[in-house]
Each structure stands twice: as structure tokens, then as C-alpha cells.
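Researcher: Sequence of LysR family transcriptional regulator follows. Predict its structure.
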Amino acid sequence: MLDVRRLRLLRELSLRGTIAAVAQALAFTPSAVSQQLSTLEREAGVPLLERTGRRVVLTPAGQNLVHHAEAILERLEQATADLADARHGLSGPLRIGAFPTAGRAIVPTALTALAREHPRLEPRGLEIDPAGVANALRAGDLDVALIHEYDFVPSPVEPGLTIEPLFTEPMYLASTTPLQAGAADGSVIARSKDQPWITASPGTLCHTMTVRACQAAGFTPRVRHQADEFATVLALVAADQGVALVPQLGVVGPRPEVTLTPLPLHRRTEIAFRSGADRHPAVAAATAALRTASGSVQALGAGGRRHVPDRCRIEEQRCPSP
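Model: Prediction complete. C-alpha cells:
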């Protein structure tokens, strides 16, 4: 009989690549992971791993077993959801992850609604970059999360997860130099190639988005500053330290000296959870609360400016949609 816990370890190894990474993510020792995987091989009766020095790769039989493990783990999520649904009222911890701008603009409103409608539920928030969400969900460190993707950085397909769209927001070039009339088109980024740039930290989706957008415009940005908070990014722009790309939700604080030029680029926010968990009443409640809280933000994707007046100056020229 195959052990589900060991199947989960095999699935994690297929995704993370090394036994050390699996051990760190799931709070095991590397030796414990190796022992559990060896036991799984004995249960399976066929080799599942090939060891070459320090490297471990899955055999074809191991890869096939991972596909079965995905289906089994999804059914377990569904079973857990059905059991939770049979109980009266929602209670216990619910772990919600979000990137910083969503954590500020959406999550507090959703938490207020959850506290009002489900007082025995215990939501627990975690600020996390979208790049780390998939592993956190699969490891059970999160139950539901808000992630985002950009036009130049689409979300990868993540085994074991379900992703649902939430809303879309426009992107802007933030600078202290207003563009000349008629300049707000696809060449806006190219016109800033000689400017110093402000980006997020390497390894984040925001940093990758800026680099790829500049490369698509024909140059590699000359990065002067790195900051992960858009409030800090706009403060640096206001200090004439460079230009930056910011999404609608990143426009915070009164910055009348900063000009925001619309771009034919967008950022899309999505809800992520483990496949099969959509039937869990707590996950369903959190998803509904997040959708309601994001209602005002969704209007921005249709061209609204609700959060921008009195904060930064927007150039009136409009970009064509991509």
C-alpha cells in the first residue's frame, strides 16, 4: 500500500529538484526525506529515483507515479472540503497570502467581512512575493493566496494548484518629466532608455517585468536603485533618481511631482489555492470575500482612475490596448 505522505514527498522532489530543498520546505531533515523515499520505492516495487553523485532524478516510473499522486492529493483536498462542509459553521485557522499592494488595498477589507460573517474563523495573513506562493500552498503553509502576472511575465502552470482570475489593472511609467503631446504610445519606454531606472529586487516578478519590458523596447535598463515597495519607488522617482514602471495599485501617497504615463501593459491579479480545495467552505468564503473587496479595483481595469487623482499627475494621452 502506497503511503500518501511519501507520495507528497515524491511530488515535492519532482518540483523542487533536490532532497535538501524538499527537506527545508517541509521541515524534515534531508536524511529523513531520503529514508521516506527509499521506503516508497520498496512499496512501489520498482526504482523511482536515479542517484548520480549528489543529484537525484525521477525515473519514468517515478514520473508516472507523480501524475497519480497529483490526482490523489486533489481528491484528498476534496474529501477534506466535504468533511468541513458537514460541520456547522466555519472555525479554525485560514492562512491567506498576498503580495504587498494587494495586502494593503484588498486583504483588510476581506478580513473585515470574514470576521463579520464567520466570527469563529481565524484568518492569518502572510505577505509573500507571488514567486513563492506555489511552494507555500503545496507545502500547506497557505490555504489561499493572491498572486499576479504581467504581460511580459505570465504565470507558469503549477501542478496541484488552481488559479482563478480576479482583476486587471493598468501599468504606468513614473517619471518627473512630462512627455510631449502625442508621445504616450508604445514608444514611451523606449524614450526612457537613457534614463536611470528603479526596479524591484532581482528574482521578483516586478523586476523581471521591468527588464523584459525594456528589452522589448530595444534596450537593457541601467538600474540605479532597487526597492520592493512601490511607495519607496515613487519617492525615489519624485527625488529625480530615475524612472520606473508601476501598476495602478502601486500608486500611493501624494506625489504631485511624479507624472504617470499610461502604457499598453497590464498586471493581472489572480486567486490561487490547492486543486480540489475550492469546495472547502473556508476557502470558498475567503475567495468570495476577496472578490467582493476587489470590486472597486476591477473598475480600474476598465479605465477608471479612482485611486490616482490628488496623488500623482497622469498624462492625458492614452495608449492603444495591446
